[in-house]
Specification:
The protein is α/β, with parallel strands linked by helices. The chain is 42% helix and 12% strand. The strands form two sheets. Strands 1-7-6-5-4-2-3 form a seven-stranded mixed beta sheet, sandwiched between helices. The chain has a four-stranded antiparallel beta sheet with strand order 8-9-11-10, with helices on one face. The protein is globular and about 60 Å long. The protein binds pyridoxal-5'-phosphate (PLP).
């Protein structure tokens, strides 16, 4: 036995390193809900402690962890807590963190059933649960990927495969050269990851037929050009700024008649379908062909959890197909046929745990509460002179502006410096806005009150200067 091997066996056996990791983790969760939401200047400066040369000699495992704890902990953003409103992030449901922790020890890669029977089983189960939760067609299959960026890529890959296939063109074999034309139709407010997918797939951004949007960022249905069976129409459930939803019912009907492929980017917004009081927003989504959604945003799974959903099993698996002499295909699910990767971690485990824990009722309650907190914030901020809400708060996104771009920017900077909460900025129809996304299970009424106070204080400081 080598020396290092011996030490690793010792680490496994005496469990000190696991115990200290757990202690550090518990220490973290005990403070993160109350700590400054963005790291302090000192904490960020402390990161220079990681600027080391490549270590020559091996280190004690406990010291490795200690270093992470000492300098890493305080330089995290408090996305786990209730006052991080930046981007569209989401917290993590405790049972999901615990399940992920347990699954770390299992170290499973559900590429094939034979490689991880448990991973494969849970993927099959969760595929059915999600199809049910989103009320999608029975034939829907799911690929468990890292996020909606990849889910969009896979879904558009499936669309590309199917549209070419209808033209007797096998894209996998023949490639793009001399291929028939694909028409890509989408709204002017599509998320940038959709554009990335279109570039990666070689479809070309310049070939997009852009459709005008209304004041909330929704595609104007009457502006959609005549579609054909070579068309790929991309819709949005949850505009990344306003949270607005396209009119799926009307648009999908039109697309269906033309035999066009409809993809819905529903990274955070598709979850409205799981809430009784909000499902009017997603009416008609079941008429689409593919969907992309995140677990790590609205459902609050730990990070690295996106799902591609596709009604056309053959299109998705053909687009992502691979084989090799050593591949063992099973009669059960082999996850790698639904994802771009072969090896990947069994992220479905925490997804399963959270859905099992919350149930349909719990999901409804958790997400409705986020919506209610968003409404609470919008109502409170509207009552403060100097702030204006720029969007209809239909789900969890709020866009706030001050009287001028300059003040908006300064107030945002001031809020970030106060560190009571964190949010980013954006541009909405040419005007600078502050963008609040409420998507943490941990956001309480009190958190919203604290946040509104922070806005008020920041405005006061800026206008006094
Ligand atoms: C976040 C987001 C994406 C990208 O998802 P990732 O999980 O970050 O890859 C795509 N579309 C919309 C609308 C989003 O909000």
């Amino acid at each position: 036995m080598s020396k290092i091997q011996n030490r690793m066996f010792q680490d496994l056996k005496n469990k000190d390193v696991f115990k200290s990791a757990q202690e550090y983790a518990f220490d973290y969760v005990d403070t993160i809900l109350f700590r400054n939401v963005y790291p302090t200047k000192e904490a960020i400066e402390g990161l220079s402690n990681f600027d080391e040369e490549l270590p020559e000699k091996s280190e004690d495992a406990n010291l490795v962890l200690k270093k992470l704890h000492e300098f890493g902990n305080s330089a995290t953003t408090a996305t786990l807590g209730g006052r991080y409103f930046g981007f569209v992030c989401g917290s993590a449901v405790p049972v999901g963190i615990a399940a992920k922790n347990l699954a770390s020890f299992w170290d499973q890669a559900p590429a094939m059933h034979v490689l991880s029977p448990i991973g494969s089983k849970l993927e099959s189960v969760v595929e059915k649960w999600l199809t049910n939760l989103f009320n999608l067609p029975k034939s829907t299959v799911a690929g468990f990927v890292s996020g909606t960026s990849t889910a969009n890529l896979c879904a558009l890959g499936a669309a590309r495969y199917r549209i070419y296939d209808k033209n007797n063109w096998d894209i996998n074999k023949k490639g793009l050269r001399n291929a028939p034309e694909i028409r890509i139709v989408m709204g002017k407010q599509a998320h940038s990851t959709v554009l990335k997918a279109i570039s990666v797939l070689g479809l070309g951004i310049e070939n997009i037929e852009w459709v005008d949007v209304d004041e909330q960022g929704r595609i104007i249905p009457e502006q959609i050009p005549e579609l054909s069976n070579n068309s790929l129409l991309i819709l949005q459930a949850g505009n990344v700024n306003s949270g607005a939803y396209d009119d799926f019912e009307v648009i999908c009907e039109k697309a269906k008649k033309a035999d066009a492929w409809v993809h819905i980017d529903g990274a955070f917004g598709l979850w409205a379908q799981t809430v009784n009081d909000l499902k009017h927003l997603t009416k008609g989504i079941e008429k689409a062909n593919s969907w992309a959604v995140d677990g790590h945003k609205t459902l609050n799974t730990p990070y690295d959890s996106g799902i591609v959903l596709c009604k056309d099993n053959d299109a998705l698996t053909s687009a992502l197909h691979m084989s090799g002499s050593y591949i063992i295909e099973s009669k059960q699910r082999d996850g790698m046929f639904y994802t771009p990767e072969m090896s990947r971690r069994a992220r479905v485990i925490e997804l399963w745990a959270i859905i099992k824990y919350l149930g349909k009722d719990g999901i409804d309650e958790m997400i409705l509460t986020m919506h209610q907190r968003a409404k609470q914030f919008a109502t409170a901020i509207k009552n403060i002179k100097g702030f204006e809400v720029k969007n209809d708060v239909v789900f969890n996104q709020i866009l706030v502006a001050c009287s001028t771009d300059e003040i908006t920017e300064k107030v945002l900077q001031q809020i970030q410096e106060l560190r009571d909460c964190w949010l980013g900025g954006s541009v909405w129809f040419g005007k600078k806005v502050m963008r609040i996304s409420v998507c943490s299970w941990a956001t309480t009424e009190k958190d919203i009150i604290t946040t509104v106070k922070s806005f008020e204080k920041a405005l006061e400081i800026v206008t006094k200067k």
